[in-house]
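Please fill in the sequence for the structure shown.

STRUCTURE ENCODING:
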């Protein structure tokens, strides 16, 4: 939903953001002037060829990385000039991340993996509640090796949302999964978005997945080339790839 349609100001916004990676004499222009906004409660799909800058943008949005130039705002607060400690604080309080690989601690159960986050958050859910949100109430005491890939990814979603972040950033969350398993993961993301209103940005290589989003942002060569609004979101179960 656009600002006009949603009636809400953006929760995250970038203005003319660029990112240049310099390796020796070579400069890679990963982002070439990005004006992007993420609105409360929406799901945005980021689509684009490999190397188009999707992960770079997501990392900058979440405060994992900094732009070379341009500005970034969280609501009315400018993030651009925060020092490392302040940026880490922003990330801890407001952003959940889900990556392609789940990064669970193998020696801890699902419940304990989520508890790692809830122990240090300000107003967290109980791990059991977070795992219920992603449909894993029956797997609380399973270790990662006792869970399927889709279940492990859902534990990582539970871990990301347990601190009740306003923003959830997902980099290819179904990239390592087959279609059927991927659908269960997307279902969990949509359920979380519906129940908690978490603004969600989702990188995917898969054009079919764009249909589960409210908006689709296309990237090419470090630029946003097109933004589409979906009239209605399609349930993940209706998408296959
Ligand atoms: N740490 C880095 N150092 C140098 N170049 C980098 C670095 N990270 C990314 N790049 C380059 O920046 C460009 C954008 O990369 P990015 O990972 O954002 O693209 P992407 O669209 O997410 O790609 P993919 O879909 O393959 O993950 C690429 O050309 C990449 O090689």
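FILLED IN BY: designer on duty
SEQUENCE:
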């Amino acid at each position: 939903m656009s600002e006009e349609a949603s009636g809400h100001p953006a929760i995250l916004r970038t203005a003319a953001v660029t990112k240049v990676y310099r390796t020796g004499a070579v400069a890679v222009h990963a982002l070439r002037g990005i004006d992007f906004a993420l609105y409360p409660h929406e799901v945005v799909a980021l689509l684009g060829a490999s190397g188009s800058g999707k992960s770079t943008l997501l990392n900058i949005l979440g405060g994992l990385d900094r732009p070379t130039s341009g500005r970034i705002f969280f609501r009315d607060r400018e993030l651009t000039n925060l020092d490392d400690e302040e940026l880490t604080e922003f990330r801890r309080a407001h952003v959940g991340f889900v990556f392609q690989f789940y990064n669970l601690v193998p020696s801890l159960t699902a419940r304990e993996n989520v508890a790692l986050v809830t122990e240090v958050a300000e107003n967290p859910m109980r791990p059991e509640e977070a795992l219920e949100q992603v449909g894993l109430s029956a797997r609380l005491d399973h270790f990662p090796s006792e869970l399927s890939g889709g279940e492990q990814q859902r534990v990582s979603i539970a871990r990301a949302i347990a601190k009740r972040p306003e923003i959830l950033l997902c980099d290819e969350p179904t990239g390592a999964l087959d279609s059927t398993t991927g659908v269960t993961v997307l279902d969990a993301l949509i359920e979380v978005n519906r129940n908690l209103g978490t603004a969600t940005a989702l990188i995917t290589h898969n054009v079919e997945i764009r249909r589960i989003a409210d908006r689709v942002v296309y990237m090419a060569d470090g630029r946003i080339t097109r933004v589409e609004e979906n009239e209605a979101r399609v349930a993940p179960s209706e998408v296959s790839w």
